[in-house]
Design a protein that fits this description.
The mean pLDDT is about 95. The strands form 3 sheets. Strands 10-9-8-11-12-13-14 form a 7-stranded mixed beta sheet, sandwiched between helices. A 5-stranded parallel beta sheet has the order 1-4-5-6-7, sandwiched between helices. α1 packs across α9. By secondary structure, it is α/β, with parallel strands linked by helices. β11, α6 and β12 form a beta-alpha-beta unit.
């Protein structure tokens, strides 16, 4: 580590457990910051140690409650900048608002771009994030972005299960590249779901491209939100003769009836990462298995801090 620019890792309240795991990997203690709310709900913070001249990393996924998590991240970044930190990096394992990345209907915002501008204005000099819903969001920033992928963690879990006749399934056309990358590394087959969305958070499965009969299918996605698409895809795979159906997702948003849907579905197991903390209900679900990306994020922080290449982590 650079002695003249100490490494400091701070955490918001969205996922302090992940920050602690990252700090364990780095063999440092989590930086002290006091976070609180005024009686009307305003967020406040005070950094309780010296960060002047430090290389500061603020870990905060912008997960539920999304707006509180985002606002808290912004004010911590501002506090770091005003405390004369040498460089402030926003570590955002799950980047909220990433699904609003384009104008797909008249008179709608591009909120992902707005969030990028807010982060930069608040004082972020660099962004470290994981599995953006749309990779082109990197281009919304005018500061460096290190975009990591959770694939190594999920692939290791799939290998551990030693699944026979494996087929990786993309639940929509947008996820084909991800599923193909998994299939290549696992020497597995590939299937694609042709899906037509009927309304927001509602999807209708239309057709499956690829052979799934008698095979073990693993559905791969970046975000598992209401799990409607996931469960419907699993049902169609089973109808088409799949022997077993499992799933792997990076960000366990798991809103609304998602956990109940997974519990009652034909899916045997859903592997997710800890970019977002699991709700109590999700932790009780025997089908959901959470894997940690703390070492991956920790290694990226070390390499950024020491000005080494991070590209080997972009798997």
């Amino acid at each position: 580590m650079h002695e003249n620019r100490p490494l400091v890792v701070l955490s918001g309240r969205a996922h302090p457990e992940l920050t602690d795991r990252i700090c364990d990997y780095l063999q440092i203690r989590r930086g002290a910051v006091r976070l609180y709310n005024f009686s009307d709900g305003e967020n406040g913070c005070q950094i309780e140690e010296n960060v002047r001249g430090g290389d500061v990393y603020v870990v905060q996924p912008t997960c539920r409650p999304v707006n509180d998590s985002l606002m808290e991240l912004l004010i911590i970044l501002d506090a770091c900048r005003r405390s004369s930190a040498s460089r402030v990096t926003a570590v955002i394992p799950y980047f909220g608002y990433a699904r609003q990345d384009r104008k797909d209907r008249p008179r709608v915002p591009i909120t992902a771009k707005l969030v990028c501008d807010l982060l930069t204005s608040a004082g972020a000099a660099r962004i470290l994030t994981m599995d953006l819903h749309a990779a082109q969001i990197q281009g919304f920033f005018n500061i460096p972005v290190d975009h990591l992928f959770a694939a190594p963690v999920l692939i290791e879990e799939i290998r551990r299960l030693e699944l026979p006749d494996l087929v990786m399934v993309s639940p929509d056309a947008g996820g084909v590249e991800r599923a193909r990358a998994f299939a290549k590394r696992l020497s597995a087959g590939l299937a694609i779901v042709d899906k037509r969305r009927t309304s927001p958070n509602q999807a209708e499965v239309m057709n499956i491209i690829g052979d799934v009969g008698g095979r073990t299918c693993v559905i791969v996605d970046d975000i598992i939100d209401t799990a409607g698409t996931l469960v419907k895809t699993a049902e169609v795979l089973a109808e088409r003769g799949a022997a077993r159906v499992l799933a792997a997702g990076v960000h366990p948003v798991l809103s609304g009836p998602s956990v109940a849907r997974i519990e009652s579905s034909v899916i045997e197991q859903v592997a997710v990462t800890d970019t977002i903390p699991l709700s109590d209900e999700a932790q009780r679900c025997g089908k959901i298995r959470q894997l940690s990306v703390a070492e991956l994020l920790g290694e990226a922080i070390v390499r950024i801090h020491e000005a080494k290449s991070v590209s080997s982590l972009f798997v």
